[in-house]
Write the structure tokens for this entry.
Amino acid sequence: MNASDPTSPLEQALHQARALILADLVAGAVAEADVVTLVEDSVTHRRWWVEQWPEGAAYVSGLVAQDVQDALLEKYGRWPLCPACGSGEPHALDVEPELGEDPHWVCGKAGIVVAPVGSLGSVLG
């Protein structure tokens, strides 16, 4: 089966990753065109990565989230900001596990899971 086949597990994992990250960007009201381009750039990069290591398809959502978070930090600042900590210095959430299935946004300061990747709308909205 061709990896660019939209029904392949690799493409499905990439499409799911794109959808989850876009949902979080929309929830945080930062889904501007240039930010969406960062998502597309990450998906393109991760397509190559997962073609080299098909067993890593389950990890793509967390990796794309981290890629976009890193790219946003370089250009705009921290994202997503922690909604759980109401006081103190604003800080970004982290993706955990760094390389694993079912990634979540977590607050490292409070040591809590805030939301699964793709579900920030449930806590930001």
Notes: The mean pLDDT is 91. The chain is about 45% helix and 10% strand. The first strand starts at residue 94 and ends at 96.
